[in-house]
Specification:
Elements lengths: L1 E5 H11 L10 H5 E6 L3 E7 L3 E8 L1 E2 L3 E6 H7 L6 E8 L2 E6 L3 E6 L16 E6 H11 L15 E5 L2 E5 L3 E6 L11 E4 H11 L4 E6 L3 E6 L2 E6 L18 E6 H9 L10 E9 L2 E10 L3 E8 L1 E4 L2 E6 H8 L4 E6 L6 E5 L4 E5 L8
Antiparallel strand pairs: 1-5, 1-7, 2-3, 2-6, 3-4, 4-17, 7-8, 8-9, 10-15, 11-12, 11-14, 12-13, 13-26, 15-16, 16-17, 18-22, 18-24, 19-20, 19-23, 20-21, 24-25, 25-26
């Protein structure tokens, strides 16, 4: 049994399937290996961590159908450099020879393909198609609010997608995106793990369109010759719409780049618990936002920038990183607030995007 593949195409495909983590599961074969299924005209490369699957299809001429399981690292090292063909010969299911024209051979004693776990075969999926850059832009807005290191509430470790909306929340902040083009045809919502989202960005960032199919258990992302399949997080995402303040007593409008510049002047290692105090007030010199932060007897910041204030003067304490993440997408930002104990609502010149941030408790002078 023999197959011939373009070396450059094979190298690119193995690089992508190698995105799958080698940690976090109990099957050594899935931690290190790629399955290659040859059907005469193509080879389907598959890797998995038991929660996600990456599949890539490349042209490959084979004498007959066969399956080989190869170590991903060994394969990548042998495929370095050159753009000729690579021949894969299977003497037995666990005895594989790879040969590069004018370079040499590699013989591998491999795992049997019967030891590789079966891949999911989903039917009756609901499919939608999106412009990849458009979708990834929204995903970038939502990623910061995903829980990344606390699995006590798994439903918060991903992004929820539903008809006309997507959202993420970590208990301290919420990102809500509304757009009628998010046609997922589900009002309940499907929760996609953050790890899957990060794979999605790496695999499809250079594609023009992406097709998404899903059911109650899994989601499929496919574009060109590449497919990513992932389990969904089971559970009900919080009714986050109820957390978005409907009214405010103060609305402050300011330049997002200017506020980012001020925040970047602050060394977060020199401020207590990452807290920045914001004081919005009208002064004789005009309406301003005054930012105060620091560690007693060590460092103290007091910065200001022009702002437009509607309603009464107000003040709030917010985590330094949370504010930076919230305002980064905007050019012009609105901060709506009621009191020092209630969350703020951040909006701006991206109508579809709303961010809610819980305040920090501080002693005010």
């Amino acid at each position: 049994m023999k197959a011939t593949i373009d070396t450059k195409e094979l190298r690119g495909a193995v690089t992508k399937v190698n995105y799958i983590s080698r940690k976090g599961n109990s099957l050594p074969i899935t931690q290190t290996d790629v399955q290659m299924v040859f059907d005469g005209e193509y080879a389907l490369l598959t890797s998995t961590d038991l929660e996600r699957v990456i599949k890539i299809k490349v042209k490959a001429k084979s004498t007959e159908p066969f399956i080989a399981v190869l170590n991903r690292n060994s394969l990548l090292k042998f495929l370095q450099g050159g753009n000729n063909n690579t021949t894969i010969t299977a003497k037995k299911s666990d005895d594989i020879i790879l040969e590069r024209e004018d370079i040499g051979k590699l013989r591998l004693e491999t795992n049997k393909h019967t030891d590789f776990p079966p891949m999911p075969t989903d039917t009756n999926l609901k499919w939608v198609e999106y412009d990849t850059k458009w979708l990834l832009r929204y995903i970038d807005y939502a990623i910061p609010a995903c829980v990344k290191d606390n699995h006590s509430r798994p439903i918060l470790t991903g992004i929820v997608f539903k008809n006309g909306a997507m959202a993420s929340a970590d208990g301290f902040r919420l990102v809500s995106i509304k757009d009628d083009k998010l046609t997922f045809n589900t009002e309940v919502g499907i929760i996609v793990p953050l790890d899957t989202i990060l794979f999605l960005k790496r695999l499809f960032k250079k594609t023009e369109t992406i097709n998404i199919g899903f059911n109650d258990a899994r989601i499929h992302f496919t574009s060109g010759n590449t497919t990513l399949i992932s389990q969904l997080i089971q559970g009900n995402f919080p009714q986050y719409e109820q957390l978005i303040p409907e009214k405010s007593v103060s609305k402050v409008t300011l330049s997002s780049p200017l506020l980012i510049q001020r925040l970047n002047m602050i060394d977060p290692t020199q401020i207590s618990n990452g807290i920045v105090r914001y004081i919005f007030q009208a002064k004789q010199s005009g309406q301003v936002c005054i930012m105060k932060s620091g560690v007693e007897d060590y460092a103290s910041y007091e910065l200001s920038l022009p702002s437009k204030i509607k309603g009464k003067d107000n003040k709030i304490a917010i985590n330094h990183r949370y504010m930076l993440d919230a305002i980064k997408p905007f050019s012009l930002v609105n901060i709506e607030l009621n009191s020092m104990e209630q969350p703020i609502k951040v909006t701006g010149d991206i109508e579809e995007l709303t961010v809610v941030i819980m305040p920090m408790y501080v002693q005010w002078d």
